[in-house]
Amino acid sequence: MADTARRPDHRYGNRPTMKDVAARAGVGLKTVSRVVNGEPGVTPDTVRRVQEAIEALGFRRNDSARVLRKGRTASVGLVLEDLADPFYGPLSRAVEEVARAHGALLINGSSAEDPEREQELALALCARRVDGLIVIPAGDDHRYLEPEIRAGVATVFVDRPAGRIEADTVLSDSFGGARTGVAHLVAHGHRRIGFIGDRPRIHTAVERLRGYRAAMAEAGLPVDEAWVSLGSTEPARVRQAVAAMLSGPEPVTALFAGNNRVTVTVVRELAPRTRPVALVGFDDIELADLLGITVIAQDAAALGRTAAQRLFRRLDGLHDAPERVELATTLVPRGSGELPPA
Amino acid sequence: MADTARRPDHRYGNRPTMKDVAARAGVGLKTVSRVVNGEPGVTPDTVRRVQEAIEALGFRRNDSARVLRKGRTASVGLVLEDLADPFYGPLSRAVEEVARAHGALLINGSSAEDPEREQELALALCARRVDGLIVIPAGDDHRYLEPEIRAGVATVFVDRPAGRIEADTVLSDSFGGARTGVAHLVAHGHRRIGFIGDRPRIHTAVERLRGYRAAMAEAGLPVDEAWVSLGSTEPARVRQAVAAMLSGPEPVTALFAGNNRVTVTVVRELAPRTRPVALVGFDDIELADLLGITVIAQDAAALGRTAAQRLFRRLDGLHDAPERVELATTLVPRGSGELPPA
DNA sequence: GTGAAAGCGCTAACAA
DNA sequence: TTGTTAGCGCTTTCAC
């Protein structure tokens, strides 16, 4: 009986609203709002009555409505490449922790390294009116974000720089890391060193290759272009590159792997071979210590944390020029990078 | 001049609204709405005018308002333990893919294995009016979700069952997997087998221990309680457990590790030892193939995908009784589990 | 200490 | 084909 009197238009599966709570408690709507938000100026007795009504009805404030009115969503968006990649898990988690400390929720999205999907995702997050956006770029043109940034969406780029716009950016020192890693191989006597990296569209791939070339040049070593391979990190592609570099009359004696996925495949590929090949990989990998893999480690969590902190400082009203932070990498020698040339 | 005439109360950093677009294009508000949503019944010429205004103003629809009106947020929440754990990355990613296929965004939150934080997060997501919720429980009492579920929030539990409420659940066969793994060790001649698992509050830990006991019992082997250790997955705690089981006059000759983190620590702990100890771990690990670690593999992505599919079927109106799905695990022999007793 | 009214930006229902 | 009105559930403002 009573039920038939309900608003037929009620959304959210017939959830009670503040109005319902107010009616039940016999108070005004605003009083319920005050109680729900812990605002002062309500008699303890009234508070109790309202709370009882809330309990009885199973009321929970609709934050969508609140957001609409207040203009801030207390949420930030994170567009990354692939949450399943062990590099991005810790990064995302670090962002989440900072967001949590600021009372904000995190909306994640994976671009799958597709620029269109990155844009689609980022704009969808903007339509949700996230307060801020952290982007690990897949594309190299971010002018599509200009209106959003102008409209007040704080935006920070991580791991790779923004394309064609000025924005806060937090990077690892890819160039320096790769240079250090390759110099390490050179120091152990290698002269023919191969570089297997990610697609040339990706900034870090290019920077790391630049680091490789710098180290080789500084050692006075020539680079045979057959020693350089950029492309997809698909195992098949990487395997082929390894095979090519290790065949012929003058095979490389050492390899530099441009990121974690490349390293994994290279390690698998080298394992069954008899002739030892030295290896340094960019990015640390779980259990790399047990496998004795020498790496250039970057701190994914620090990247995420730094970016998120910057974001929230912007949201707190910071207004200076966009900043570019570069985090140092660490050479972790574990054996594979210290092998002498075969 | 013109600026001073602006509404002083404008939120979202002075973003244009449909009203602004309508004014600029010289059309009605609803016409803008039609164009933005691609609804039919608008003259191509009008569409063009509206689109020009949208472009010029940098308008983007405010989905918060849309959500408030439509009652569906096109977003789902995922409460998991720790996004930085390599087990949850793929799971989360799989959920995201299904959500994306249904046009929904994913809001992630990590409970850090803290029941209170799980509840806080889940309820915050409900306040955002996510359409559905996927929970990897940290706690064992989910009655706090009852009002939400009754109010229409589709809810699916993954990896561990819900506590004290009926709900859709997607699990891996922890009991069967552990039993298979331990039986495998028995088949290779072991009689004294240790079990090192997660905290006893965690369902999977208990189930896997149960599998261990079942396999031992089925083989007619006694279980010395000194061979069983449940607790935190902190490396220190695990190391201590390993040390204890491998010392004394009758040390275990094989170990069963209750999850990925335990396995990693056990492997590190066993590596420097001379006496070989057989090992089977629950959960697969990257590079475990190269280290020759025998594991009981569960498919994290399949868990996430299955749960998300169930969730969206609920959102599409499915109304049958809560279902419990148990996904099979796979024994992957790689050497460590096939070692004979020392 | 409390409540009524207005309005956040959008969509549904209806009118023109 | 297009526009007007009402209202989603909340917070803000201001009056009582």
TrEMBL record, chains A, B:
<dbReference type="Pfam" id="PF00356">
    <property type="entry name" value="LacI"/>
</dbReference>
<dbReference type="GO" id="GO:0000976">
    <property type="term" value="F:transcription cis-regulatory region binding"/>
</dbReference>
<dbReference type="InterPro" id="IPR000843">
    <property type="entry name" value="HTH_LacI"/>
</dbReference>
<dbReference type="InterPro" id="IPR028082">
    <property type="entry name" value="Peripla_BP_I"/>
</dbReference>
<feature type="domain" description="HTH lacI-type">
    <location>
        <begin position="16"/>
        <end position="70"/>
    </location>
</feature>
<dbReference type="InterPro" id="IPR010982">
    <property type="entry name" value="Lambda_DNA-bd_dom_sf"/>
</dbReference>
<dbReference type="InterPro" id="IPR046335">
    <property type="entry name" value="LacI/GalR-like_sensor"/>
</dbReference>
<keyword id="KW-0805">Transcription regulation</keyword>
<keyword id="KW-0238">DNA-binding</keyword>
<protein>
    <submittedName>
        <fullName>LacI family transcriptional regulator</fullName>
    </submittedName>
</protein>
<dbReference type="Pfam" id="PF13377">
    <property type="entry name" value="Peripla_BP_3"/>
</dbReference>
<keyword id="KW-0804">Transcription</keyword>
<dbReference type="GO" id="GO:0003700">
    <property type="term" value="F:DNA-binding transcription factor activity"/>
</dbReference>
